[in-house]
Amino acid sequence: MAKILTLTLNPALDLTVQLARLEPGAVNRSQAMYTHAAGKGVNVAQVLADLGHQLTVSGFLGADNPQAFEALFVQRGFVDAFIRVPGQTRSNIKLAESDGRVTDVNGPGPEVDEAAQHALLERLEQIAPGHDAVVVAGSLPRGVSPQWLQALLVRLKDLGLKVALDTSGDALRAGLAAGPWLIKPNTEELTEALLSPVLSVAEQAAAAQRLHAQGVEHVVISHGADGVNWFSSAPALQAVPPKVSVASTVGAGDSLLAGVLHGLLSGDSAEQTLRRATAIAAMAVSQIGFGISDAAQLAQLEQGVRVRPLTEQ
Ligand SMILES: Nc1ncnc2c1ncn2[C@@H]1O[C@H](COP(=O)(O)OP(=O)(O)OP(=O)(O)O)[C@@H](O)[C@H]1O
Ligand SMILES: [Mg+2]
Question: How confident is the model at residue 158 (pLDDT cuts 50, 70, 90)?
Fold first, then answer.
């Protein structure tokens, strides 16, 4: 069991609204509504907790509506190291129609000022030692620059933590320069961050080689149902998930990241690490939520994952 810190700088309350059919501009009646505490680092923490690890969660949380987060942290036994900032944590609204179409409306979230950023750094200086790894996941809130993220990652590395980064856009580009230990972009995110396509295996291998040179040890590139390619100092591996019926892809990337981190921190073989991580991600896709609800089902999914050495195509 490892002690893991996850950072969610821009968490969200997910509000799922179920309706038969969305009629824009009209009064719509919802069949059901659910709210839950979300954000990529919080999601990763939940999967890691399912895998038996001890979690501290941190980042920025709006002081006006922390209840759903606080309840989740108590329920899951997470140490709560979130900095409270004035205002409300944003809501991400998902309008889910019965034909499976989902319309997303994502809120802006609170502005995070320099004092709050400083407070988070101070908190991390205190709590980071003693953790084996830190996962920094999701987008940046208003007021936080990619350069600040880069400095944060460098500091976390200096504090002796293995840093796993999962973000996108300018934040990913700036974060890469800090040389995190592990990254898990999808192909689109990595293409955007590197400003060159990384779709073919040859392109991915070349990009991974450049990233290794700047200190990124594990380059895990996901590509939805096509699976995942993993480049490290060991021979590169590809995993293809079994076919599953898709209930919701929410948490797929977070589950994959949690699974890879779990295997690496547990000393599992690379093959087993990737097999289980891919099965956990497939399990996320096959349910409305995510997480390891059924160990037997996970074992069965693991059997269905194909892992093979990656040769350039
Ligand atoms: N339809 C699917 N069937 C099986 N597995 C899937 C499917 N979609 C995604 N996965 C698994 O989840 C992993 C992550 O998915 P994806 O590449 O879409 O990540 P992502 O874009 O980062 O997702 P997220 O939106 O959660 O951040 C994939 O590598 C794959 O193993
Ligand atoms: Mg993702």
Answer: very high
User: What is the Cα–Cα distance from 201 to 260, expressed in whole angstroms?
Assistant: 20
* Active-site residue, from 50, 158, 254, 268: 254
* Nearest ligand, measured from the Cα of 229: 1
- What Cα–Cα distance (Å) separates residue 300 from each residue in 172, 175, 225, 266? 34, 36, 17, 21
Instruction: Give the ligand with the smallest distance to the CA of 252.
Output: 1
CA 72 – ligand 2 centroid, Å: 22
Residues around ion ligand 2, judged by CB within 5 A, are 253
- 254 tagged catalytic: yes
Which residue minimizes the CA distance to atom 22 of ligand 1? Answer: 253
Residue 209's Cβ-side half-sphere holds a number of Cα atoms within 13 Å equal to 6
Q: For 76-121, how does the pLDDT look when each residue is reduced to its tens digit (9 = 90+)?
A: 999 999 999 999 999 999 999 998 888 999 998 899 999 999 999 9
Which long-range contacts does 226-235 make (Cβ < 8 Å, 24+ apart)?
227/278, 228/256, 228/274, 228/277, 228/278, 228/281, 229/201, 229/204, 229/310, 230/260, 230/270, 230/274, 230/310, 231/204, 231/205, 231/310, 232/270, 234/270, 235/309, 235/310
Cβ neighbours of residue 206 closer than 8 Å, sequence gap 6 or more: none
- 240 CB near ligand 1 (under 6 Å): no
- Segment 151-179 shows an average pLDDT of 97
Any atom of ligand 1 within 6 Å of the Cβ of 220? no
Q: Please tell me whether the overall predicted TM-score, pTM, comes out greater than 0.70 for this model.
A: yes
174 CA distance to ligand 1 centroid (A)? 24
Q: Which domains are delineated in the chain? A: 1-22+31-144 (3.40.1190.20)
